[in-house]
Amino acid sequence: MWTWQAHDMSERDRAALRHIEATYQVLDGWRARSRSPERPERGSELEADAQVWAWHPPYEVAWQSLIAAVQHLNLARTAIEAHP
Fold it and tell me: 0.70 exceeded by the pTM?
């Protein structure tokens, strides 16, 4: 089975990889932020929505979406870093 090596990549591919790797610090920040849900600001529309749908507030839906996005991006990162 053939796998790619860094030296087999074109300059354009290496530039794309560097661009992706440059986002890792931001991804780490989002991962830290996603560890606990953020409550909506007092008096905001989101807080009012949370009162209407108290059994499943919209801010929790947003938080769960953030978790899913972070996990998917970390999966891609893991795959990239697994290659030599």
Answer: yes
Of all residues in the chain, the percent with pLDDT exceeding 70 is 90
Please, which pLDDT band fits residue 1 given cuts at 50, 70 and 90? very low
CA dihedral sign of residues 36, 41, 42, 48: negative
DSSP string over 21-68: HTTHHHHHHHHHHTTSPPPPPTTSHHHHHHHHTTTS-HHHHHHHHHHH
Residue type, 54: A
Structure tokens at 31: 């991962």
